Amino acid sequence: MRIGQAVFTLAFAAGLLMPRPPAAVGQAASAAISATTIPEASQMQPADLAKILASGGAKPLILQVGPKVFFEESHIKGAKYAGPGSRPEGLQLLEKTVASVPKDAPIVIYCGCCPWNKCPNVGPAFARLHDLGYSNVKVLYLANNYGDDWARKGYPRE
What we know:
Elements: H1 2-13, E1 43-44, H2 46-54, E2 61-64, H3 68-73, E3 80-81, H4 88-98, E4 107-110, H5 122-131, E5 137-140, H6 146-149
Parallel strand pairs: 1-5, 2-3, 2-4, 4-5
């Protein structure tokens, strides 16, 4: 039991078990959040978002949080570009983009630059929105990338 306590104490002292800093501390902390840490309950499957977009009902705010070049090439119909989540300037643009959005509004973020487990953008963007108090955020689960998991399936894009 003492070894476990020692490991915990050392990890805590090294900053490995420190809680994520609040939004006021800065944005760099959010950049370390991986897509793989996003709870499954906060993920949305592409087919589910496509159904919502095809319905006549209310649509969520859809934000692309990856590289701008990918957004300019093709993006989910109705999506807005909100900056790359892995960069401080991207998180600033994300904040600016949602500044007038109610905290309980439905928001879907996505990147699709690479496989989910390697995406550097959705984790930090998801964490930042939660740090800002947004409570209805989903992350579009693109297992491989935007091309394979959205565009090639014929889902709505522009």
